[in-house]
């Protein structure tokens, strides 16, 4: 019983630290910046968080499954230029769908390399990161593609229900749907098993490879969505748009508490991480903190938050690592190699 | 809309009051009461979306903007795009959402700012562009552009190379970031001038080195390997990239001396011109650019009509007048 209390308290605290951060940002922002704590600011933070948010959300199941996808930035660029370049050819909506399709396609390529050729996802997606970043530059001759219909995407960043914009509402809805999938469906829960120990999951009858393929497809789709939304709302398909997006996305996911080792994570925590990071960035900006100094604070914050996460969670609930230690299994770092 | 404006005005008044109470107003002691004259902008807030925090040209421009804002008693918030127009577009949104009184924007591409500019227009927030122009649709929503005529700089550079090379030979172009307004204007002006004058200069290659010395160094190594002594002239679209080419040339040991042209009037370029390793540069004073931009924006905020383009003077510096001029940065 006491154990259970500790566990609940621990979990609450893990979730709490992001809220604490948000409250601190709100308080400090209000003191230092007139008119900071307002619905407009919240709307702006959420709206700005959307693009990184979709990348981070897509990354979450991949990390839970114990894999990583470094190619999401390149997928974003590819999806963005596809959408804008195809707008005059096949129309606005089909072009947006084509952008999503490109995302899924690259996700499928990642999945194939990881599952069929049994190459570590770090290496596989590093390769696709490089390939598609260059391809985006080649296809566009290094020039950003301008949309012939710049008005079409503007409503995406308009007002919706006071705090949202249409695109940030999509982001929050996607986070909630993913939460429901991961938390309340058998397939979602199985994903955690795959990430904790793929071999053990397999022997329990879970088809690990199918799960890993699915996560890469999701990641591709979400990065595609990020690219489509960004390109439509800026009416520009930039071949380098994704180049700077990978690190913020990973940072947001990790601040949310999802572990790179696999087996742990939550899409709502990612949502929290993205919003916290976005609010922090905006507060820094309006306090005139130079961009290069902001990165130092972000780095320090990352370490502090992750340390807190370890302190709280290690004595409470079993992590993937303690689970792995408990099993009498030959040490197979990723487990994928075990698949026949 | 009017109600909304009133809220904004009330909010900024409250912000000004808060500032006054906490005593961190940068307006200075004098404070000739704002109530009397209608045009006063004291205590108003300007959002300045700048290209970068740390860059040889952008940093002094930011300082100039700050100085002009301080002089007028305006609160200036500087946010940096770090050379990403996507970031800038989002920052523009945030600035509009915050309901500032004026926005100074450093555009980095043609279209990305359009949604934000439309919102600014809806909210009645005036926007002035600094240094770089943006797409036609976007410029229609911008009150004024304050900066050097980059297209003209391209033309001047072509004329300088013509003069230096005596009208023939192979040249390479080390261009800025692809798709950037400055890059488009400086390349466009150069090419158009060559064509218009029926020049016999042959452009061997154009490479994009993003206004970065290191990238220019790497690109120049490739150019020197590929073309070697065919390179008689080099058009670098800024002095930092001209420096990169000079480094590559020195380490190549080819023993050729092509004429190198830069732009911006940096201190390093002045030294190179004195040493004879660079042929010329064009002074474009960044501090003054920032100052002038804020002054123009303030004029707009005061309800004055301003020109669509407020140009900075282009001064060519070569060996003949290098001692009479001061570096722009």
- Helical percent range of chain B? 40-55%
Strand order of the largest sheet of chain B: 2-1-3-4-5-11
Task: Give the assembly state of these chains.
Answer: heterodimer
Biggest sheet architecture of chain B: 6 strands, parallel
User: How would you classify the helix and strand content of chain A by structural class?
Assistant: mainly alpha
Radius of gyration of chain A, whole Å: 20 Å
Helix content of chain A: over 70%
Total strands of chain A: 2
Reading the helices and strands of chain B in chain order gives HEHEHEHEHEHEHEHEHEHEHEE
Q: Let me know the average pLDDT of chain A.
A: 81
Greatest contact between two chains: A-B, 34 and 41 residues
Task: Tell me about this structure.
The complex is a heterodimer of chains A (about 350) and B (about 325). By secondary structure, chain A is an all-alpha fold. Chain A has 13 helices and 2 strands, in the order αααααβααααβαααα. In chain A, helix 2 packs parallel to helix 6 and helix 4 runs antiparallel to helix 9. Chain A is globular, with a radius of gyration of 20 Å. Chain A starts with a helix and ends in a 14-residue tail after the last helix. Chain B contains 11 helices and 12 strands. In chain B, helix 7 links the parallel strand 6 and strand 7. The N terminus of chain B is likely disordered.
């Amino acid at each position: 019983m006491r154990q259970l209390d500790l566990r609940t308290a621990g979990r609450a605290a893990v979730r709490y630290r992001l809220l604490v951060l948000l409250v601190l940002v709100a308080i400090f922002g209000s003191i230092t910046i007139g008119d900071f704590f307002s619905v407009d600011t919240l709307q702006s933070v959420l709206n700005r968080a959307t693009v990184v948010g979709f990348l981070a959300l897509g990354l979450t199941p991949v990390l839970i499954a114990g894999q990583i996808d470094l190619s999401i930035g390149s997928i974003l660029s590819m999806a963005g230029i596809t959408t804008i370049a195809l707008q005059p050819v096949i129309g606005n909506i089909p072009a947006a769908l084509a952008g999503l399709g490109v995302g899924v396609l690259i996700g499928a390529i990642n999945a194939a390399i990881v599952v069929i050729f049994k190459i570590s996802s770090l290496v596989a997606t590093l390769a696709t990161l490089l390939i598609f970043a260059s391809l985006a530059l080649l296809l566009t001759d290094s020039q950003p593609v301008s949309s012939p219909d710049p008005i079409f995407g503007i409503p995406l960043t308009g007002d919706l229900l006071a705090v949202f914009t249409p695109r940030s509402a999509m982001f929050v809805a996607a986070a909630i749907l993913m939460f429901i999938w991961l938390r309340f469906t058998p397939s979602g829960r199985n994903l955690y098993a795959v990430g904790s120990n793929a071999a053990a999951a397999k022997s329990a009858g879970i088809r690990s490879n199918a799960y890993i393929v699915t996560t890469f497809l999701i990641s591709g789709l979400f990065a595609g969505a990020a690219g489509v939304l960004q390109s439509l709302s800026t009416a520009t398909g930039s071949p380098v748009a994704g180049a700077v997006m990978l690190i913020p996305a990973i940072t947001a996911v990790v601040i949310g508490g999802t572990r790179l080792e696999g087996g742990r994570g939550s899409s709502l925590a990612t949502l929290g991480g993205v919003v916290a990071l976005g609010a922090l960035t905006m507060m820094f900006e309006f306090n005139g903190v130079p961009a290069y100094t902001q990165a130092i604070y972000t780095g320090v914050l990352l370490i502090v938050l992750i340390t807190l996460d370890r302190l709280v969670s290690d004595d409470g609930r079993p992590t993937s690592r303690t689970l792995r230690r408990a099993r009498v299994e030959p040490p197979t770092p990723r487990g994928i190699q075990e698949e026949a | 809309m009017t109600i909304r404006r009133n809220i904004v005005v009330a909010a900024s008044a409250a912000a000004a009051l808060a500032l006054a109470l906490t005593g961190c107003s940068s307006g200075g002691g004098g404070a000739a009461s704002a109530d009397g004259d209608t045009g006063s902008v004291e205590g108003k807030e300007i959002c300045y979306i700048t290209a970068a925090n740390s860059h040889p040209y952008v940093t002094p421009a930011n300082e100039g903007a700050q100085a002009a804002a301080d002089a007028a008693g305006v609160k200036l918030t500087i946010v940096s795009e770090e050379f990403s127009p996507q970031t800038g577009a989002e920052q523009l949104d945030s600035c509009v959402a915050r309901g500032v009184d004026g926005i100074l924007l450093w555009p980095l591409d043609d279209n990305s700012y359009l949604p934000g500019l439309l919102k600014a227009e809806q909210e009645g927030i005036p926007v002035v562009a600094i240094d770089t122009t943006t797409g036609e649709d976007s410029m229609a929503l911008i009150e004024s552009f304050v900066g050097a005529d980059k297209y003209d700089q391209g033309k001047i550079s072509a004329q300088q190379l013509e003069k230096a090379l005596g009208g023939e030979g192979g040249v390479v172009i080390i261009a800025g970031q692809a798709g950037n307004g400055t890059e488009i204007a400086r390349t466009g002006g150069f090419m158009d001038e060559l064509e218009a004058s029926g020049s016999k200069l042959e452009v061997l290659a154009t490479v994009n080195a993003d206004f970065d010395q290191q990238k220019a160094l790497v690109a120049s190594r490739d150019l020197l390997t590929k073309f070697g002594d065919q390179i008689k002239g080099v058009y670098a679209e800024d002095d930092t990239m001209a420096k990169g080419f000079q480094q590559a040339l020195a380490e190549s040991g080819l023993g050729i001396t092509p004429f190198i042209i830069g732009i911006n009037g940096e201190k390093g370029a002045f030294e190179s011109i004195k040493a004879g390793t660079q042929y010329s540069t064009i002074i474009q004073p960044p501090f003054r650019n920032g100052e002038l931009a804020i002054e123009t924006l303030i004029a707009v905020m005061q309800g004055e009509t301003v020109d669509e383009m407020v140009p900075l003077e282009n001064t060519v510096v070569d060996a003949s007048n290098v001692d009479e001029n001061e570096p722009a940065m």
